[in-house]
Design a protein that fits this description.
This is Acetyl-CoA:oxalate CoA-transferase. By secondary structure, this protein is α/β, with parallel strands linked by helices. It is built from 16 helices and 13 strands. The chain folds into 2 domains: 14-222 and 346-408, 3-Layer(aba) Sandwich (Rossmann fold); 251-334, formyl-coa transferase, domain 3. It is 37% helix and 16% strand. Helix 1 (23-33) crosses helix 6 (183-206) and helix 6 (183-206) crosses helix 7. 34% of the residues are buried.
Length: 412
Amino acid sequence: MSKKLGSGALDGIRVLDLSRVLAGPWASQMLADFGADVVKVERPNTGDDTRAWGPPWLTSADGKPTGESAYYLCANRNKRSITVDLGSTDGQALVRRLAKEADVVIENFKAGGLVQYGLDYESLKKLNPRLVYCSITGFGQTGPYAARPGYDFLVQGMGGLMSITGRPDGSEGDGPIKVGVAVTDVMTGLYATVAILAALAHRENSGEGQHIDLALLDVQVAYLANQASNYLVGNEVPQRMGNAHPNIVPYQDFPTADGYMIVAVGNDLQFGKLCQVLGQAEWAQDERFATNASRVANRQSLISLMRRLTVHRTTDEWIAAMEAVGVPCGPINTIDRVFANEQVQERGMQVSMPHPLAGSVPLVANPIRMSASPIEYRMSPPTLGAHTENVLGDWLQLTASDIEVLRSQKAI
């Protein structure tokens, strides 16, 4: 058990994070938010690839760039950073010593990439049988694609997501589109978090650690969710539908007098209320539209009729009228309007943390609310190698002279 850093649900759990970019760091940030002691192992001088993925850069109080990229900042709070050269024999030995003290290791090297360093699961399992070891790759540890590199954009395409994202064929601006956030990486990070927590629970009962093999492509296929089920059950290949829903109507965007709004009708009762707001109460009894199944069958007719009406009032006017009777609806906000939204502000979805270079750093909050062990914002995303001496003293009880030897060997 590690030195207590907080009082979160995972206080006392040590995580050695060998990953970089987004999927692995997203998982380790989640564990860190839950109170785990996460040590981020980075390359000397350069660190995590995303440290260089700017602009934008975090700026100091006088407006000067700090060199900390916004991308890096999004996935690395509550961690401690150490620099270790995995290419050196001494660096590899040091990481093995750290892994012996860890509860969890997260890595996203190519399949088999850590074997040469003696840092693969089978090697570390001999040193620490209770270790939970999570490997994140593009295509997994097995299969014909196992050796291929995998990236979110690539996997969004290969895994089917882009085939159902974008405007329909034959419409203006048609063609496949990726999602505007690296959702496959983020979802893989969340699946990794769930798997690690399950493995820790299993260890409590069995005393044994285990290897978690997590692939971006597997995750992408899994979270096709209802679209995958539509294909497997209905034997029809889902197509791009723009903002429409394959199983629910009306459930999409509509033009207004000053922009667009979203109407998300989930049942027949809500549809009846929508008809009243639109001044077309008779639609609720029209056999073409009375049930969701009939609305799906007559989608084009209903949507065309609605679009002719919605352009006559502003977005705010429609939303006020629909909210008054309980019809789910809302605007399509730009991100600045998201953070200005009263609900988002009330829920505290933006936090500010002290930062050694900038004074403070704005971050998106963790959305999880726990009554007994709430999320703690203990440390801002660390500067490169900021905690090397601290961690080596804490985890391995190394002295200043021991650390100086490692520096002379260029292990750290």
